[in-house]
Amino acid sequence: MTILVTGATGFVGSAVARLLLERGERVRVLARPGGDRRNLDGLDVEVVEGDLMDADSLQAAVAGCGALFHVAADYRLWARDPGVMFAANVGGSRNIVRAAQAAGAERIVYTSSVAVLGIPKDGTPGDETTPVAFSDMIGPYKQSKFRAEESVRELVRNEGAPVVIVSPSTPIGPRDIKPTPTGRMIVEAAAGRMPAYVDTGLNIAHVDDVAQGHLLAWDKGRVGERYVLGGEDMELKDILAAIAEITGGKAPSVRIPHRLILPIAYLAEAWTRASGGAEPFVSVDGVRMAMKKMFFSSGKARRELGYAPRPAREALADAVAWFRGNGYLR
Predict the structure, then answer these.
(1) Do 177 and 38 contact (CB within 8 A), yes or no?
(2) In terms of Cα–Cα distance, which of 264, 268, 265 is closest to 285?
(3) 60 inside domain
(4) How many alpha carbons lie under 13 Å from residue 193 in its C-beta half-sphere?
(5) Per-residue model confidence as pLDDT tens digits over 71-117
(6) DSSP states of 175-199 as a string?
(7) Is the pTM of this model over 0.90?
(8) CATH no. for residue 92?
(9) 248, 324 in Cβ contact below 8 A?
(10) What 3-state class would DSSP assign to 112?
(11) Does residue 37 lie within any of the structural domains?
C-alpha cells in the first residue's frame, strides 16, 4: 500500500513518515515547490509536488494511495495576513481529505491540535469531551484549526470520509528545523537567554511518541473519533528548570506578570508590521494563550490505542541535544 503524508518536510510529519518507513510501508509525500526538504534527507520516499490550495495538484498526490496522514498545517502564533492561515488550515484540509476519499483511501488520519479543545476552569486537565466554542479560540491559529476540524467532521458525517482525528499537545524533539514556537522557547532557554518566565503550563510530548500515536490511530482508531496525543503536564518554571539541569545552566527565578508582558507584545507586533519583519519575538496572542495552563489528558488514547508516551524530561533532553548538534544554540 502507498501512503501519502502531508507535512512530511516539517516536524511532526517527518516523524510520521520515518515510522511508516520503519514499518515497511511505501511512503509518498506532498511537498511545495521550493520548500525546505532537509527533513526528507536520506528517506526513501516518493516526492510529489503540489499545494493544498490547488485541488488539481492533489489528484496526482493521492492517486493509488490507500491511506492519508494529513499532518500539514500553518502553525504560527502571529500572521501578517490571517486569511492565509485560514486558507491553508481550513480549505487545504477539506481539499486533501476529499481528494483522498475520491481516490479510494481506506483510512485517513487528520492531525488536529489540543489548541481547539476546552480547558477546564478548575485547573484539571482537558480532554476530548471538555466543552468548548469558537469564541474560546485565541488568535488565527486556534481559530483556523477549530474551523478545520469542524470541516473535517462535516466530511465524516455528510460524505462518509473515513477519518480518525488526532490532537497532539506540545510536541518537542529532533528535527524541529523551523523551529516551532515551543522549539524556539527551548532554544532560548538552552542558550541561557531566558532570564525570566511567566506563570503558564504546557503538556510536553516527544515528537516520536506523537508520531507513534498517529500510527496507532491508523491501526486502531474509530472513524469520527478524536484522540489526544499528549505527554506530561508541566509548568513553565519546571520546564525551564529541567532544561537548565540538562544544559548545566541556571534556571530563571524571576516570574513576570502577564500584564507586564502584554504591552511589550503590542510594541513588538507594531514594530514587526512597520519594519516588514517575519514574526515578532513575542505576540499578543501568545501572551493571551499563556494566561491559561494547557494541561490535557491522553487517557482515551492510552485505553483505546495503547498510546504510551515517555517522560517529558526525555523529550526535553532529546530536543536540546538536537538543537545543540545542529547549531541552534550558538
Answers:
(1) yes
(2) 265
(3) yes
(4) 10
(5) 999 988 778 888 999 999 999 999 999 999 999 999 999 999 999 99
(6) T--S--HHHHHHHHHHTT---EE-S
(7) yes
(8) 3.40.50.720
(9) no
(10) coil
(11) yes
